[in-house]
Amino acid sequence: MIAFLISSLFLLLLGLAALAVYLLRGVSKYDGPPAGSADGRVSVHVLVLGDIGRSPRMTYHALSIAKHGGKVNLIGYLESAPHPDVANNPNIAISPLPTPPRKPSFVPFILFAPVKVTYQIYHLTRVLASGLEPAQWLLVQNPPSIPTLAIASLICRLRNIKLIIDWHNYGWTILAGTHGKHHPLVALSKLYECCLGRLGDQHLTVTHAMARQLRNAPYRITQPMLAVHDRPAAIFQPLASPSARAGILDRVLPGPEKALVPHLVDGTMRLVVSSTSWTPDEDFALLLDALVQYAASPAAVPLLAVITGKGPQRDRYLAQIAALTGAGRLPNVRIATAFLPFADYAALLACADLGVCLHMSSSGVDLPMKVVDMFGAGLPVAAYAAYESFGELIKEGENGRGFERDQELAGILRRLLGDEGRGELERLRMGAVREGRRRWDEEWDGTVGVLLGLVS
Predict the structure, then answer these.
(1) Residue 432 near residue 399 (C-beta atoms within 8 A)
(2) Which pLDDT value is given to residue 33?
(3) Where is the signal peptide (predicted)?
(4) How many angstroms separate the CA atoms of 124 and 105, rounded?
(5) Which of 36, 32, 62, 37 is nearest to 47 (CA)?
(6) pLDDT by residue (tens digit) across 327-382?
(7) What is the Cβ-side half-sphere exposure of residue 438, based on CA atoms within 13 angstroms?
(8) Angle, nearest 10°, between helix axes 342-351 and 369-376?
């Protein structure tokens, strides 16, 4: 099997090299602002090989560059609506990539992967090599690392563009979570990411723990590196007026749950929100088990749990929710799912009593953006805690509570949502508000803004 993979990879690389040579013929280079240009603005291509609308950090990069007068091309898939400020910003142009084909259920991953990667390589190379004028910088999100790092580093060397790699996580650890750490493709992905990750001119990381890790084996990155924590955007704000809560909930809750608004407002029912991408790196069964245990307590306050987001495992868990509800195992607990526009999601967080984060870091050194947003909305969290960088964002007993097992989460829900826990929940809420006061602009201006020459 390994010999087959290596030989297939070699043939694929030969074919892709030929494709790259064809696409890169006569490619132009970045040589400063165009002759006669009056503004000499910083120009940046911001690339995410994913859905732009569900890539908040890269969206915030683009908005910050544009805010300081830079020119941005935001490159990625348009599977959902981008942030409204992106669509209306004259300094930002969106360069959409065609969405790759989806894997048919009967085709093995090992056969489909080369097809998908080839498709991505062609369209990514075409856009970066000839679809856009060369920029001063190319800022790319990692992961996905395949084929992003290879194409980005090649284009940057040929077009005299400086490459910034923004490390959100590691592609090979995510792959290991779905295919097992001993899968041959995981080993190849790790080798690829460690080698090509060294080709960036500058590196950004989401935590200090990740920056430390990237300096050591097996990555051994020596180029300049900045830790840039995710911070909430301005749209995430604590609820300014408690009297507005009823109207907001009536607007943002799914249809059948609107009837519960009076109970949520008067406190006879509590509201919990969890945002998920419905992928294997978030064990949603842990939350379901905790809710079953919570509901089994006679003293449990009635609860509405709203789960936002979309992803591949959604239908599977919806079936489990329906089965638990039908079997009577969730008395006094309602579970609703929704995929909300950005503004409505921010408003929902501000109206909730508690946020729940199931993010299980595959690398151990990334942080969940959803918790950042919750803090921006003044919402305390209960979050899965078994990874190294947890404490860089969530302070136990100050702005949230950590758990590792469903029994622990059930206990947190019973304590914080009950009458006896109101004082503790309020202290955590105030801690969330304090943590959320440091905003993205403040974090970005002093790091990336200085790097790009947009902030002195």
Answers:
(1) yes
(2) 66
(3) 1-20
(4) 26
(5) 62
(6) 999 999 999 998 888 889 999 999 999 999 999 888 999 999 999 999 999 999 99
(7) 12
(8) 60
